[in-house]
Design goal:
single chain; ABC transporter transmembrane region fold; Rossmann fold; six-stranded mixed sheet; four-stranded antiparallel sheet; 23 helices; elongated; disordered N terminus
Length: about 600
């Protein structure tokens, strides 16, 4: 009954699935991507075909051997001029050796070619997909989980690699088997050939019907595994929070839910794919039994020879039984095509922010920045920046203060072109930043963010990140300026100490000082300090403040801060609320105005 329900599902869903098809088939998308490997694909396919041709030769040799035993001087070989029985078997033996050697050579060739092709395409896809991800705007990442993207870059590409490894060869060899053996049947015994061929159209039709029905199920499987990976990635990143809130049981239950959804999605696909082989076996039974019975009668009645009957019996097995492997191959193919669609959809994601073509060498940058009537809003949200204008003279230090969510950090992201303004312009030294090459624009800006990110590696490697050719002396000098050298030398291996993933082995203040050293080593014309001292104690803040006073000389500096004590010496201070500047001036001027800034100063300094 279960098998009957599965068959009914396939037949009912076939028409629905056909109506769904309209987009480009994933296999076509993959072949278009792998166009540079066209020669290798053809060569691998030819080796697969030749291997199968020689693999199908032994049944024919057996039939000829039976023919020699039965007919002797009247055998097929005897008709070619070799009447001696010893000579006939010698020729058969020599042919067997040659065929087996050639079969082995081509098996080695196709396995090597397909596997290397799989590795090459896997390598290229992963690099191209990651490169494309790096070029996408920040908004793309805000709408997607890291785990989901990791699933595409890892599991989906690996799934495709597994199919190319063996599945492509299996499909080619099955096709060759059907064509060669089918042709041989009609040549050797046309009267009974149709019996052996009878199941083939039904097998092929059933295969395509299953393909249509299984495709959306495997697409759903890939979606569910992406959600599962996302949950795992989030939990591993937030393990400290999970432990501190004793939420282990809660997270296990949430993970169980995601894993159960993945299991159920797989179960629905398995329900259909597992029925494929039993159905094929029933169809094979029809062809094999018909040939065994009617072919045997034909041999007894002299319509076909005993040798031909032997060849047909061997060939029918070589033709029909390998078709049962199509179940596994087909299952692998569907998983690979679902993964291909996900990878190709990522590669086809349009890039919203395009780099300009104007070069601006860093040594020629003066650092004059101008925001003119800039408006910006995040997707489906109200404007964060509203018609804002700001002039930052070259070599000057300006500070921006304001409440959380007022738009301070957004200005930095717009200057770095991590987001694109909706209206207005931002210029650097009089050049619209949209016209500048990304590398030149971002090379001239050093960012020390409130959320410091350190890579798993040594302290020295993290300081030199972005300045990869820096010498050891330059790294140490930058660390000293950032007031980081002393604590680094107290670490177990000094500058060679591994900081751990995201710098988890260091304190917040230590991470921030390394980030400042990294920006100092970059030596950019423009320095952005986005809450650069938010995670340090008062003593460290004072030390960093001394270093910042040295490195901001003759350098355009934008300081965003909640601690007003860190920006009181700025050339000009702007107070920002709701995406607009409501006050501006020097520290003394703002205190005299007795507005928002003065109120904040009194609160932070302990004055009433």
């Amino acid at each position: 009954m279960q098998l009957h329900r599965v068959v009914t599902t396939v037949f009912k869903s076939h028409r629905v699935a056909k109506r769904r098809r309209g987009s480009v088939h994933p296999l076509k998308r993959l072949l278009k991507y792998a166009e540079q490997y066209r020669q290798q694909i053809w060569l691998a396919s030819i080796c697969s075909i030749l291997n199968k041709l020689f693999d199908l030769a032994p049944p024919a040799l057996i039939g000829i051997a039976v023919d020699v035993v039965v007919k002797q001087q009247d055998s097929i070989i005897a008709r070619l001029g070799v009447k001696d029985i010893f000579g006939q078997f010698f020729i058969l033996s020599a042919l067997t050796v040659i065929i087996w050697i050639l079969e082995s050579i081509f098996e080695y060739s196709f396995a090597r070619l397909w596997r290397n092709l799989a590795q090459n395409i896997q390598h290229d896809l992963r690099l191209d997909a990651y490169k494309h991800l790096q070029d996408l705007e920040l908004a793309y990442f805000e709408e997607r989980s890291t785990g989901g993207l990791m699933s595409i870059l890892g599991d989906d590409i690996n799934q495709l690699e597994r199919f190319l490894d063996v599945g492509a060869n299996d499909i080619i060899q099955v096709a060759v088997t059907v064509i060669i053996i089918g042709g041989a049947f009609f040549i050797l015994a046309p009267s009974v050939a149709w019996m052996a061929m009878l199941p083939i159209p039904f097998i092929l039709w059933g295969t395509f019907a299953y393909q249509d029905v299984l495709a959306p199920r495997y697409a759903n499987v890939r979606e569910k595994v992406g959600l599962l990976n996302s949950r795992l990635a989030n939990n591993l990143s937030g393990i400290t929070t999970i432990k501190s809130f004793t939420a282990e049981d809660y997270e296990i239950s949430r993970l169980a839910g995601e894993s159960e959804a993945y299991r159920r999605s797989n179960a629905k696909a398995i329900q259909l794919s597992a029925a494929y082989v039993p159905l094929i076996r029933m169809l094979i039974l029809v062809g094999f039994t018909a040939l065994l019975y009617f072919g045997g009668l034909a041999a007894v009645n002299g319509i076909i020879s005993v040798g031909t009957y032997s060849v047909l019996i061997f060939l029918i097995q070589r033709l029909l039984w390998p078709l049962t492997r199509l179940g596994d191959t087909f299952d692998q193919y569907q998983r690979a095509m679902a993964s291909t669609n996900r990878v190709m959809d990522l590669l086809d994601t349009p890039i919203a922010i395009h780099p300009g073509d104007v070069a601006l060498p860093v040594e020629k940058v003066r650092g004059e920045v101008t925001f003119k009537n800039v408006t910006f809003n995040y997707q489906d949200r109200q404007a964060v920046i509203k018609n804002l204008s700001l002039d930052i003279p070259a070599g000057k230090t300006i500070a921006i203060v304001g409440s959380t969510g007022s738009g301070k950090s957004t200005l930095v992201k717009l200057l770095l072109r991590l987001y694109e303004v909706q209206s207005g312009t931002i210029t650097l030294d009089g050049i619209d930043i949209q016209k500048l090459q990304f590398r030149d624009l971002r090379r001239c800006i050093g960012l020390v963010s409130q959320d410091v990110f350190l890579f798993h590696g040594t302290v020295a490697e993290n300081i030199a990140y972005g300045s990869f050719d820096a010498t050891e002396a330059e790294i140490i000098t930058a660390a000293k300026v950032a007031e980081a050298h002393d604590f680094i030398m107290r670490l177990p291996q000094g500058y060679e100490t591994i900081v751990g993933e995201r710098g988890q082995k260091l304190s917040g203040g230590q991470r921030q000082r390394i980030a400042i050293a990294r920006a100092i080593l970059k030596n950019p014309p423009i320095l952005i300090l986005d809450e650069a001292t938010s995670a340090v104690d008062n003593e460290t803040e004072a030390a960093i403040q001394r270093s910042l006073e040295r490195i901001t000389v003759n350098r355009t500096t934008i300081a965003i801060a909640h601690r007003l004590s860190t920006i009181r010496n700025a050339d000009r201070i702007y107070v920002m609320e709701y995406g607009q500047f409501i006050e501006s001036g020097t520290h003394e001027q703002l205190l005299e105005q007795n507005g928002v800034y003065a109120s904040l100063w009194r609160v932070q300094s302990g004055l009433k």
